[in-house]
Amino acid sequence: MNNTLFAEYAWLPDGWRRNVRLEWDRAGTLTQIEVDSSALGAPCAVGPLLPGMPNLHSHAFQRAMAGLTEYRANATDTFWSWRDLMYRFATRITPETLGAIARWLYIEMLKSGYTSVCEFHYVHHLPGGGRYARPHELAARVVDAATASGIGMTMLPVLYQYSGFGSQPPRDDQGRFLNTPEGLLGLLASLRAALPADSSRAYGVAPHSLRAVSEPSLRELLAGLDTVDRSAPVHIHIAEQTAEVDASVAFSGARPVEWLLDRFDVDSRWCLVHATHVNRAETAALARSGAVAGLSLTTEANLGDGLFPAYDYLGARGRIGVGSDSHIAVDWRAELRLLEYGQRLLRRERNVLASAEMPRVADRLFAAALDGGAQASGRSVGALAVGRRADWMVLDTDHPAIAGHGPDTWLSSVVFAEHGESAVRDVYTGGERVVQDRVHRDEDVAYGAYKDALAELLGQ
Ligand code: ZN
């Protein structure tokens, strides 16, 4: 393998730079970056290089549900009625179908320019709650799918114990998700032993939500994680729904984000997924904490969650990243676009999330999502810089969205102009080209297996 690449333009931590020569080692880590360089015999990239985008929130199996719940079955259709349908779907998942769905999903992610993913994995057991011979069976299928596709992975096995605030007993249809902290830590240990962390793979945990864990169980989980890795990422769903905020206030007198920040040492290892319903004080406190707000705009729109106060939060220097969550869309461009458009529609202004230092809103959101996504992943990704993983996408400057443009408007057009196929042409992870001319190396085989899995799950 030739571990060098020359690009006429590349997005480095200080923005677009010209004549950039990259080198990386056998583990796929960047070892040298030279600007104003010459090709020196290095192969030339077919277009400008952008760092690969980390996807900080995914439930892989939900990819197979996308588009199946867009009808109204009750007088009011909400997140909670969607969740009932999703639970019914989750009962049918098998190790084989999960592996096939995840592999296809990760190929879709790579083709869009997501080069790593944080998998918030909560289907652990047999239908009804019985254990697989290997407790980590389903999680391992997801990790294997990531390895096969070439995407980087942060696996976050989920602790789910209760059905509501105050340790309410779980529902019958939550049996596949349930663990004690001790059981979940054991599952994580056996998974790590089978598939050890390396330069493409990391582990953390995900307490599902404040509905699904108690204060003592969350403390036990974090203490157990700290004995293995004190910096491992911790992700939690929080304040996605107003009903959840109301239930939190009824239980403890505090709102979910307020409660968590008051009682736990929430810092840069944390990712608060959604955090949609935060008041002014919570918005400021979350920004101060150094945690990442994990935004999944297309899913939040699809589920009717609400609007995260992105203007105030970014103004307070809060950290963000984006994810595809339920996979109603698998495209970081759509997440950034909707993040800005929600604020435009709300405030009746344009370029709301731009800043004085970065007046081009797409550039600002792209840079912010790279930083926050990398932080949330607990891996050295998210930048073309020495020591980071050699993950990038190559733009097609012949694409109608950016043809005739220069670097100043490449990202603006890639994010905001929607004209047919993506302008992302090639994608590399760990220095290896996994997507070439918009085709993933395994896409035919993986798509066949995905269609077989769908046929089995949907009974067709
Ligand atoms: Zn989620």
Order of strands in the sheet with most strands = 4-14-15-16-17
Low-confidence stretches: none
Helix/strand class: alpha/beta
What share of the residues does DSSP label as strand, in percent? 15-25%
Looking at the structure, what is the overall shape?
globular
Layout of helices and strands, plus pairs?
Elements lengths: L3 E9 L2 E10 L5 E5 L14 E3 L1 E6 L20 H12 L4 H18 L1 E8 L15 H13 L2 E8 L21 H14 L6 E3 L2 E2 L7 H14 L5 E5 L3 H11 L3 H8 L6 E5 L5 H10 L2 E4 L1 H6 L7 H6 L3 E4 L9 H16 L13 H17 L14 E4 L11 H10 L7 E6 L2 E5 L2 E2 L2 H16 L2
Helix pairs in contact: 2-3, 2-14, 4-5, 12-13
The structure holds zinc ion (ZN).
Characterize the structure shown:
With 460 residues, the protein is an alpha/beta fold. It has two domains: 4-50 and 386-444, Roll (Urease, subunit C, domain 1), CATH 2.30.40.10; 51-377, TIM Barrel, CATH 3.20.20.140. It has 14 helices and 17 strands. The chain has helices at residues 79-90, 95-112, 137-149, 181-194, 215-228, 242-252, 256-263, 280-289, 297-302, 310-315, 332-347, 361-377, 407-416, 443-458; strands at residues 4-12, 15-24, 30-34, 49-51, 53-58, 114-121, 152-159, 201-203, 206-207, 234-238, 270-274, 292-295, 319-322, 392-395, 424-429, 432-436, 439-440. The strands form four sheets. It has a five-stranded antiparallel β-sheet, with helices on one face. Strands 5, 6, 7, 8 and 9 form a five-stranded parallel β-sheet that branches. Strand 11 (270-274), helix 8 (280-289) and strand 12 form a beta-alpha-beta unit. Helix 2 (95-112) crosses helix 14 and helix 12 packs across helix 13 (407-416). 52% of the residues are buried. Bound molecules: zinc ion.
